[in-house]
Write a structure and sequence with these properties.
This protein is mainly beta. Helix content is 6%, strand content 36%. A hairpin with a 4-residue loop joins β17 and β18.
Length: 502
Amino acid sequence: MTILYVATNANRLKAIEVNSDTGEFVRTVQDIDPIVRSRKHQTPLTPGDIENNNDHHNSPPSRIDTNNDKEKSFLFEWLTSHLNFGMPTTEWIERHPTFDSLLYVFTSFGSKRSAVVTTYRILGIGNNNGNNEDDSEKNKHIRGQLKKLGSVETQGLHVAHVAFSPDYSTLSIKAKPPSTLCVGHYLDGSLSFFDCSQDCALGEPQKIVVLPEIRPETRRKTLPNPLPSIHHVTYNPRGRIPSSCNDSDDEGDSCNYLLVSETSKQGRVWTYNVDSIGLPISSQPASFLKVTFITPPSGWFARLVTGSWVAGLADYRIRRCAVHPNGLYAYLLLEFNCVIQVYEIQPETGRISGDCLQEIPTIDPNKVIGLAVHGSAELHATDTEIFVLNRGLNPFPTGSWAESDVRVFSIENNGAKLVPKTTIACAGRACHFLALPRDQSYPTQLFVGSDMGRQFENVEEQTSASIETFVRSNAEEAGGTFERVGIANVGMDRITCIAALS
């Protein structure tokens, strides 16, 4: 059995058990609603407050007054429900890579107040690293349930992504815990750094860094285009380049750099030099890559929407950035352009070369029909494959079509070239996916979340958001393709993030 931790855009976290073989829903393990209680009369943090590590939010928590909800405009309600800004929303979930029973849950409040990280203990699996599962009847009954250890503000606005130092997705033997957890924020372009070396709840951030402005006096924290704006953070790969991550003496993380992907019109991937445990040496980045596109968004409606309503962000919107486990190549995912760009990167410094080696589409541009918008949302890289989640928005089912799937690419030439391998068709607007195992090894299982009301093949319209389970149906020699084995309704309208206890 597999327990999935599913977040939604309503400050809610749900743990469900699914059958690992069939993907069918078994039971609800726990439903936490709300994760964080909202506060009245919040004063948003200013850039100066963030840089000086000031906190305006010391009043005790209270329930938010919802009496005025009916007075909000239809547009406001649509934006907050579909874009998750303004209202409490659980944006990210991450398990600790070494302390298996620690789960970090990040709740955002748009520009109203700082985001909050809540640390939970996963019960029934042991508290330390390694496989410490207790098969007693008592632990089987509580296995997967969450016990809250504490909450703390991230001191940034709207969490977009988090990363451990260095990149623990490339570590096979996770014997020593990482020292630092980096949290990137979307609405104010800030980075918060937490000490995560202990088997306990996270404390206050150790350090706060804010992305620079290319042009002075352009900083803003308003939609649709905040500036600066972070959507992805990642440290250098671990354990492949001796000069960058040598843990043979077991003295520490030995980090070299941190990559920060920006989605604002500044359109850059920033490189920060970091110390051995992952904290920035300077508040200013050491280098950057100014990104541009070769291929414009596919479809007239997508170009219209991204060129006007999103104020041209499609030209620069770097959704994700991943580094090949060998440390030699970086992969940038441009969201509305639906392409992956491949660059060389210096493994010791993290400086990305200015020449794009390859730009490859993540969708079929010839199949964009009518009033549809495509967005490539997630990127997961292994030694031999890259997985990309395409999130198609199709508001008018008749006469239009948007691609929602997971595309798999083979990696060739030691990481320098991507080749299309297979397409995993999903039902409706896919929101998030999780590949297991989440390291450089060969993923054998995918969990893909999609919104309520989507049509599944040979299945009636879903009454809640659902998770599709895909497994490898054959060996790599026979193609290594995936097939859907089951669908589990989660009892929520939307899915924003998934974590797993397998």
